[in-house]
Design goal:
GO cellular component, one term: nucleus
CATH architecture of one domain: Sandwich
InterPro entries: p53-like_TF_DNA-bd_sf (IPR008967), T-box_DNA-bd (IPR046360), T-box_sf (IPR036960), TF_T-box (IPR001699), TF_T-box_CS (IPR018186)
Radius of gyration: 22 Å
Number of helices: 13
Main location: nucleus
Distance between the termini: 32 Å
GO molecular function, one term: DNA-binding transcription factor activity, RNA polymerase II-specific
Keywords: DNA-binding, Nucleus, Transcription, Transcription regulation
Order of helices and strands: HEHEEEEEEEHEEEEHEEHHHHHEEHHEHH
Structural class: alpha+beta
Length: about 500
DNA sequence: TCAACTATCACTTTTGAAAAGT
DNA sequence: AACTTTTCAAAAGTGATAGTTG
């Protein structure tokens, strides 16, 4: 509904003093986003959140649920989520901790999940919590369902975008703001790694099998494994809870199953017997414990950048990036970095108020700093000491993919869901440069990803170019955004 | 041999249409 | 007849497990 021009009146509301960053701070910056259920996220984060990715797509658990405030009640907004790499590495689970296993693989096509209720008035978004329950993750790079594509054994974190726009078409002209929450970072896996069931160095699968065959010998501490948390909190996994309601489970399989079953029960009953939750962050990530110093979680309240609380970040930056999501016990208000779109150099990823309360911090910028040449060094702590990745890389969140032709440099632009200008390059009346992505046109850009059926505007909301492109690349026209969202919005494919 | 991936299982919750009630 | 509530089967979402792949 409102273009950038229309937004101006909305800027009349002064932001909190703490948010008055940037010379030209958009007063829209008073939008606040809080993560719901931060305690749960924190619990997962302490262990090292793992998200299963499957070919057909798997939901996240915990799933992202946020609350918004500070929106203009009558203005329409679009909510989006995408996933950005935490860093440029591939990991492996080894001996009860994560280790770097090499450079990250080239990033798969970047997709952005559009909240099914988008666009909706600010009042709608603010009246209730907003759930991204139906967002699915997949490792199938050829996925046709619009799920977000990730690489297994890589670290990611979700990034939430809110755009004041009447429809997807006007998104490009709108101000959008990005929020991230450090405790939501996770490792994409095809099978849970940190089961803490066995101590076999050979990995979780083997550990489980040995457990089964060796019985009690391996009965250790699944109590703190990621699976226990999932089982305990995910209603769909109730069947795995040791509550006597699952007696029938696998009962007719074989003795091993029974053995495993009892093992599990035992394990569950021994919850908290061994590892204490407090050391999860350190114990699960290689190098973390070597950093010494204060437990990460202690620092959050100090207003450090959000992602410093990530155990991974801590690993990378012993000095300034220790921290944990522990403090996330309180719902976290994360102020965002804003992006005025379009404007090539409008990409000024300042953190609104981050300096004063640590609200947005890196979590807001990182993904927006594809062009190190034009972006202030918002986070001098990067690149991290042990990062073997390309030095010219943008911030970790932007990850290896943004690093050009190197192996890590993926065909993906993590500059955000709204980087749509490329498709317009060279067109009269349309910006001929990227909104804020410095990548060349040969670099792929994000795709829209949407939930199934929807109230989304149909493809005709796209420019003819977009629609045509979808047809061009995929051979048919899509009837709704859900379908259409699988495809690149740009004049070239992401893959 | 090994790590990672995939298909399948048995369980659960969710969903939505049909039936019943008001 | 119209609307609301209840019921129930199908669909979908889970972690565990065994087999496959490279």
């Amino acid at each position: 509904m409102q273009s950038i021009r229309d937004l101006k009146p909305n800027f009349s509301v002064p932001p909190p003093s703490s948010m008055a960053a940037g010379p030209d701070a958009y007063l829209q910056g008073n939008i606040r986003m809080t993560l719901e259920d931060p305690e749960l996220w924190k619990n997962f984060c302490e262990i090292g959140t793992e998200m299963i990715i499957t070919k057909p797509g798997r939901r996240m658990f915990p799933h992202s649920k946020i609350n918004l405030s500070g929106l203009i009640p009558c203005a329409k907004y679009i909510l989006l989520v995408d996933m950005v790499p935490e860093d440029g590495f591939r990991y492996k689970w080894n001996k009860e901790k994560w280790e770097v296993a090499g450079k990250a693989e080239p990033q798969p096509p970047c997709r952005t999940y559009l909240h099914p209720e988008s666009p909706a008035p600010g009042s709608h978004w603010m009246k209730q919590s907003i759930s991204f329950l139906k967002l699915k993750l997949t490792n199938n790079t050829l996925d046709q369902h619009g799920h977000i594509i990730l690489h297994s054994m890589h670290r990611y974190h979700p990034r939430f975008h809110i755009v004041q726009a009447d429809d997807l078409f006007s998104v490009r002209w709108s101000v959008f703001q990005t929020f991230t929450f450090p405790e939501t970072s996770f490792t994409a896996v095809t099978a849970y790694q940190n089961t803490k069931v066995g101590s076999s160095p050979s990995g979780p699968r083997r550990a489980r099998r040995r457990t089964a065959s060796h019985g009690v010998a391996r009965r250790r501490t699944a109590s703190h494994g990621i699976t226990k948390l999932k089982i305990d909190h995910n209603p769909f996994a109730k069947g795995f809870r040791d509550e006597g309601t699952n007696k029938k489970r696998r009962s007719n399989k074989n003795p091993v199953c029974l053995d495993k079953r009892s093992k599990t029960s035992d394990i569950l009953s021994r919850d908290s017997e061994e590892d204490s939750p407090a050391d999860f962050c350190r114990s699960s990530y290689e190098g973390y414990d070597a950093e010494g110093g204060d437990p990460p979680k202690r620092k959050e309240a100090d207003g450090v950048k959000e992602e410093r609380y990530s155990p991974w970040a801590a690993d990378r930056e012993p000095g300034g990036r220790t921290g944990s999501p522990a403090a996330a016990a309180d719902p976290r208000d994360v102020y965002n970095a804003e992006q005025l779109v379009p404007a090539a150099n409008s990409y000024q990823p300042y953190s609104v108020g981050s300096s004063s309360h640590g609200g947005s911090g890196r979590s807001s910028f990182e993904s927006r700093v594809p062009d190190v040449a034009t972006v202030p060094d918002h986070d001098p702590s990067k690149p991290r000491p042990h990062e073997a990745g390309p030095p010219a890389c943008g911030p970790p969140a932007c990850g290896p993919p943004a690093c050009g032709p190197q192996p890590l440099a993926g065909p993906q632009d993590y500059s955000g869901a709204l980087n749509m200008s490329a498709a317009q390059a060279g067109k009269p009346g349309v910006i001929s440069h990227h909104i804020y992505g410095p990548y060349g046109a040969e670099q792929p850009l994000p795709q829209w990803s949407g939930p199934g059926p929807a109230q989304y505007p149909p493809p005709h909301h796209l420019t003819a170019d977009y629609a045509a492109q979808a047809v061009h690349h995929h051979g048919y026209h899509h009837g709704n955004v859900a379908e259409w969202s699988q495809y690149p919005l740009f004049s070239y494919s992401c893959w």
